[in-house]
Amino acid sequence: MILILFFFLPSLLSCNSHPLDPLTPSELSIIQQTIKTSNGLNSSTPLNFHYVGLAKPDKSALLSWHADDSHSPPPPRMAFVILRFGRGQTHEIYVDISTKSIVSNKIYTGFGYPTFNLEEQTRASTLPLKYSPFMESVKKRGMKLSDVVCLAASVGWFGEVLKTKRVVKLICYVTGDTVNFYMRPLEGITIVVDLDVMKIVDYKDRFVVPVPKAKGTDYRSAKQSLPYGRQGKPVTVVQPEGKGFVIDGHFISWANWRFHLGYDVRAGAIISLASVREVEKGLYRQVLYKGFLSELFVPYQDPTEDWYYRTYFDTGEYGFGLYASSLQPLTDCPTNAEFMDGYYANQDGTPVKIKNVLCVFERYSGDSSWRHTETGIPGQVCGNYDYITNWEFKTSGSIKVLVSLTGILAVKGTTYTNAGQVKKDEDLYGTLLAENTIGVYHDHFLTYYLDLDIDGNKNSFVQAKIKTMRVTDGSSPRKSHWTVVKETAETEADGRVELGSEPANLLVVNTNKKTKVGNDVGYQIISHGATAASLLSDDDYPQIRASYSKKQVWVTAYNKSEQWAAGLYVDQSRGDDNLAVWSQRNRLIKNADIVVWYTVGFHHIPYQEDFPLMPILTGGFELRPSNFFESNPLIKTRPFKQTNWPNCTHRS
Amino acid sequence: MILILFFFLPSLLSCNSHPLDPLTPSELSIIQQTIKTSNGLNSSTPLNFHYVGLAKPDKSALLSWHADDSHSPPPPRMAFVILRFGRGQTHEIYVDISTKSIVSNKIYTGFGYPTFNLEEQTRASTLPLKYSPFMESVKKRGMKLSDVVCLAASVGWFGEVLKTKRVVKLICYVTGDTVNFYMRPLEGITIVVDLDVMKIVDYKDRFVVPVPKAKGTDYRSAKQSLPYGRQGKPVTVVQPEGKGFVIDGHFISWANWRFHLGYDVRAGAIISLASVREVEKGLYRQVLYKGFLSELFVPYQDPTEDWYYRTYFDTGEYGFGLYASSLQPLTDCPTNAEFMDGYYANQDGTPVKIKNVLCVFERYSGDSSWRHTETGIPGQVCGNYDYITNWEFKTSGSIKVLVSLTGILAVKGTTYTNAGQVKKDEDLYGTLLAENTIGVYHDHFLTYYLDLDIDGNKNSFVQAKIKTMRVTDGSSPRKSHWTVVKETAETEADGRVELGSEPANLLVVNTNKKTKVGNDVGYQIISHGATAASLLSDDDYPQIRASYSKKQVWVTAYNKSEQWAAGLYVDQSRGDDNLAVWSQRNRLIKNADIVVWYTVGFHHIPYQEDFPLMPILTGGFELRPSNFFESNPLIKTRPFKQTNWPNCTHRS
Q1: How many Å lie between the alpha carbon of A638 and the closest alpha carbon of chain B?
Q2: Which domains does chain A have, with CATH numbers?
Q3: In chain A, which residues have their Cβ closer than 8 Å to the Cβ of B600?
Q4: Which InterPro entries does its entry note (chains A, B) (predicted)?
């Protein structure tokens, strides 16, 4: 009981103490009521909420409040709401929470639609079950209607000139003797649903291929039969002196770091105001004003009728935070983790809780003397795929962002049961993973928004290019060496980087702050694998929508409204409001408030080990101090007292 | 006492039970005595041992013995010895340990010299302390001779046509008020020592620059003063049910893996006979016949007189296993680790022990549901730099090889105390890290020997190239997609890969074994960062010696004598016996016994955080089953019972 109180108390006492805290359930209810009772929105047509989130205060206002060590009153709490209403209009509404009033209400008339809400997807997905042509299709395939599950898929944009309706396509699967229905697709059926009228508006049953068998697809341990695989012995972490971090509301302090951790229904985890303490001066220095996963683009590489449109934008179309799962203690996070819940507004605007949506823990990485304890935040599980996103803060000053892919592939039914049957020149657009089952080729592009403010918000982007120099004057027995040629980006055009095109260190520096020996203070971005860029043609429609996915790094001038790499309205977007378009404005980015966009990219050729559920594949990047500190900050961190070490004395 | 017995017993009982076990102290003594008492070697001239290691049995003999489940007698124990003797001759000697006899004794007459032994380096490094011109140089710099430490550095080869003497250059430093003398070089002095006559044969004092101050260079925690950095709380791992692996001599079984772990004075850790168990058939299937770090090339990028020759080959010139440090319990390996000692022969042939040279442990990686416990082996600390090399075996069938760089940079003294003093067009060949201290640009190329035998030793190397396909016939609303074009290497020329030049999966497959659905069984090599290749000109001498460092991947036909990427004799080598030269033979590698060579590469631009000791930087690669199993082997591994989980119920 005491423990329960203890963990509840900080949240009761500190809740909403920070202007960046996510909207609370009571705030969500106020927003819902404010909108529902407002003149002009109060109608017989239902209001459909598609996004409700904190409208972030102005950066300058927030920074002054933060610098004042929270002694002045915080900026007012505002919400940003996107809803559909009336004759299918998209409204952008700002609500002042304290005054319970609508500050502005604007109708959006451009291309693209807001993020789906869960309820409309669920409603749409049940329509076929009462639609007689579909019932006939299921029968024709020898399946039971009660075993069928359909899911809504975004349709993309393929060059239509006029505005298209807000439709989805349904992809249907068979459960039966497996929980893993994703492995049992019903191929050959096209079902189009208009979400605004919630009706099937197009239906085709074009061909029949066998539905893959259920056998071998279930991944639950209770469903496995002998023989079992051998395993090691369980390993658990313990912290004999308790946890080393303090969570005050959403503000986390650990070792030399402090940062704010928020949740957003679209972005998932948001890190804000991350700053690191310099030992000598005892002051915290700014590093990352804001960091989050801005977009996740997953284009499949099969151009056929059933698959060509599967070019998902998981953040903008589906909501990365909406699809987040509750983290499972011991399975997803270790025993020493602390959990945070997330809240979002459903279709009706009512608050819904996702329990344990984030966890925070100190990690044992003790493989070597200078690899210190770190604190990490994994989170987010989305769709059939599971993405585990980690933010690791290290005492060295590094922030390591890692993405782990696991979960279930999207597979395609086929008549083939053996690779030997495939005709020589035929393209399966994937790998035969099991009988009648193709794992379709695809990519994952996770684009991170990184508003780095290295020791202040006037920063510059520098490519420290590594260039071979010839020695031709006989001044050395050597004939060559490499050196570093630093190129500072003047405008956004200089801030576009294709990783691997030439060797370079990528730095964000503050030329207004120097170390004692006169170097510009800075941080470096280091890739840790997963540097794929999109291979689609520039004129292909999915590529036009995600035109930023051809380069892994972009640097833009800070603009409050430029947060989502594929634009604010991604469903059926046409690429007129994305990162690449903003960059075309070619603003000055030298000694300016700049944002770095970094894409973690994977080309995924499936293999049989990915069936029925893929083992983790990891990639990411590290933000590493590079002339930020005067010297290695680990040196000044005293090692932990060494206590229990039972095994060492066994050998002598 | 019981525990001590327990941990000693397996080693007593099983010692030498496996033909791949490293030479034991008693075997090293037998080899020493056999050689010392042999006719023709028994002379008044001292014998200098440069390498004593197990002469590996023939692969076919070993594999038959292994397949027979160790019931037949093992292949005989033989040692391979390199020694210098008589008129400076290099001898290659094979010793039969059981018969205590010399099987062959050959004089090597080619270019290059064997690995230095420790004793000759130590003797050489003390010569200047009694050499009056050097004593004068130290005095001129205002330093105390008793504070001076010199180290032997290989001199490389810079186009000399005639055979050169076996010389080293000495690089001298000042300790004084720091243990980190590497940060305090004496610049401007050239000292050349002939190792065979153990005399200074050349000496120059060319210029004086200030010796960097000791202040701030000591990294020992006891030497730090207030204020200290903040830290988290200690995190320890526990295994309530004990360890999950079994070590029988040098053979390790854990979960679905088994492998042999050896130590060699040149290579460090050697993994052999790694095989993974398939649950369905209950059989172990071969994956890696042998894997080890074959060479570590570290070229500095400063062409000036004091630095141009610093192009080290740490394995071939110095011995990666010889420079291995004892791993520190709790600091280097967690509480649940088991340690192994290593033994080598010193200059005189006498066995020397390196305690705890390797450790084995189960790792808690429990950040997510499908990231399972792994077993890992870190080891090896070499020279001023520390390299921590890890082999992680995962229940998913993956082997992850990670290299962590930490330790102390090689720095150069300078008159500069501030970056502002440097003339605009002057190249420092490095970064000003502190007053009078430049961290010189350099690379690290760690080349791994990977004799993969995927389900047998007839394998092929396949590049699954990812290629954009245009859709031009109007058959799809898409205009493009990518597909996979598999190219099987016919000869060694097809086995050279420049990573990043085009997107591809790199696979080693066995086309003689198919999965049930007809795919070739295989493993994939996935890079996890650190994919740098050498940037030196092809005609530069260090590059000629390490000509293989321009490509990260080579595939060669198995040849017992081709083990060391830069050749057997690396000191003053001329590039006539290295991996690139072997590959020029262009042997057939399709459906053959093949070896993959993978280089983990870092371009290192130093930053102030690397002073006085750099925080860990990690890179590596993963060998990942890719159509090796019928499906994900994790599915058949039952989860651990969930026990102690105190924190979860605090929030509800």
Answers
A1: 6
A2: 2-108 (3.10.450.40), 118-220 (3.10.450.40), 255-636 (2.70.98.20)
A3: none
A4: Cu_Am_Ox_Cu-bd, Cu_amine_oxidase, Cu_amine_oxidase_C, Cu_amine_oxidase_C_sf, Cu_amine_oxidase_N-reg, Cu_amine_oxidase_N2, Cu_amine_oxidase_N3
Rounded to 5°, angle at Cα A347 from A342 and A353: 20
The answer to whether the CB atoms of A529 and B532 lie below 8 A apart is no
pLDDT score, position B615: 86
Catalytic residue from among A21, A264, A314, A451: A314
Pairing between strand B520-528 and B614-625?
Answer: antiparallel
CA distances for A388 relative to A309, A323, B90, B249, angstroms: 25, 12, 56, 39
Asked if B647 and A539 come within 8 Å (Cβ–Cβ), the reply is: no
Residue A96: pLDDT band with limits 50, 70, 90? very high
Active site includes A523? no
Which residues 394-423 of A are in CB contact (within 8 Å) with B? 394-398, 404, 406, 417-421
Paired tokens of B43: 């002379």
User: Is B627 within 8 Å of A542 when comparing Cβ atoms?
Assistant: no
The gap from C-alpha A628 to its chain's centroid, in whole angstroms, comes to 28
Structure confidence at residue B647 as a pLDDT band (50, 70, 90): very low
CA distance A356 to B612: 41
Residue B645 sits at the chain A interface (C-beta within 8 Å): yes
More confident call, A434 vs A424: A434
Assembly ipTM: 0.93
The answer to whether the CB atoms of A388 and B367 lie below 8 A apart is: yes
Q: Which residue of B lies nearest to A613 if distances are taken between CA atoms?
A: B632
With beta carbons under 8 A apart, name residues in chain A contacting B303: 471, 475-476, 478, 480-481
A323: left (phi over 0), alpha (psi -120 to 50) or beta: alpha
Partners of B429 on chain A (C-beta within 8 Å) are: 481, 483
> What pLDDT is attached to residue A2?
26
Residue B529, min C-alpha distance to chain A (Å): 4
The encoded tokens of residue A278 equal 């310099």
Q: Using CB atoms, which residue from B515, B616, B636 is nearest to A228?
A: B636
The predicted pLDDT at position B42 comes to 67
Tell me what pLDDT residue B4 has.
Answer: 23
pLDDT surpassing 90 at residue A7: no
pLDDT in tens, A269-321: 999 999 999 988 889 999 999 999 999 999 999 999 999 999 999 999 999 99
pLDDT for residue B70: 65
Calpha distance A120→A127 (Å, rounded): 11
Percent of chain A predicted with pLDDT > 90: 73
Give the pLDDT confidence score for residue A169 in this predicted structure.
98
Handedness of CA A176, A180, A181, A184 (dihedral sign): negative
Which is catalytic among the residues A300, A385, A387, A449? Answer: A385
Q: Percent of chain A scored above 70 by pLDDT?
A: 92
CA distance B483 to B501: 17
Beta strands (DSSP E) in B319-473 are 338-345, 351-363, 374-379, 385-394, 399-407, 411-413, 430-434, 437-440, 442-452, 460-470
The residue whose two tokens read 């057997």 is: B568
Instruction: Give the tokens for residue A401.
Output: 């962002």
> Token digits for A114?
């807001």
Contact residues on chain B for A603, CB-CB shorter than 8 A:
466, 482, 503
Q: How distant is the Cα of A311 from the closest Cα of chain B, in angstroms?
A: 10
Q: Which residues from chain B sit within 8 angstroms of residue A396, using beta carbons?
A: 609, 615-616
The most distant pair of C-alpha atoms in chain B lies apart, rounded to whole Å, by 87
Compute the residue count for chain B.
652
For A169-222, give the DSSP string.
Answer: EEEEEE-SS-S-GGGSB-TTEEEEEETTTTEEEEEEE----PPPPSTT----GG
| Interface membership of B87 toward A (CB under 8 Å) | no
Tokens representing residue B281 in the block = 């058939």
